[in-house]
Here is the input.
Amino acid sequence: MKKIKCVISYDGTEFAGFQIQPKQRTVQGEIEKVLEKIHKGKSIRIHPSGRTDAGVHAIRQVIHFETPLNLKEKNWKQAMNTVAPDDIIVKEVAFVEDTFHARYSACEKEYRYYVSNKQDKDVFKRHYVYQFPYQLAIEPMQEACRYFEGTHDFTTFSSAKATIKGSKIRTLTHVSCNVVDRDQIEFIFRGNGFLYNMVRIMVGALLDIGQGRRKPDDIVILLEKMDRRLLGETAPPEGLYLWDIIYEQSI
Here is the structure.
């Protein structure tokens, strides 16, 4: 058996999330259908670096699987892309050691979130940015970003619907907010792990600060309180992208 690592991209618009769900179209389900065809009807289970929710996109998601087939790396990429649906593409394929795991070998993840601040909504971007036509002050949001960096308990910034038990302490190494186009704002979050809806809840809090509803240093108090009820609605999934998975070495 060989272990294969794949880097994939997908448009999350038409998916009910990454993880397989009964009677729902999912990224995992579609990729496993691709592998089943390549393996002549044999079921192959994939293992991702993590899950994404319905409507969330991925630039560089990483998966691994085991196979008895003897194909070259370039042939794997070609075969998978030939069978894959149009909203999934395999970008890289590599053979890896048995010790590699797409999830447990990762040391950092990076997410990016995009907000369009135009007064008029763009019908062609409705699935790819959060269209938020309200005045925002960038500098207070940039100041607030710095309070997220470091090691904290992110209970306040985790969905109350989360089913994962255990510690909600995470370390964020980089959080930033910048205008990348005249009316588009890019939020970058990089860290060793993220809780359910964590990025989208943080974005919602930062937008409150940009509107003057909160002060930048309110983030410190919110982290200390460990209470999701202190914050408003979660930002929608359309603007969120799993940007990259970082491993200790190139595998």
About this structure: The longest strand covers residues 169-181. The two ends are 18 Å apart (CA to CA). The chain has two domains: 2-96, 107-247.
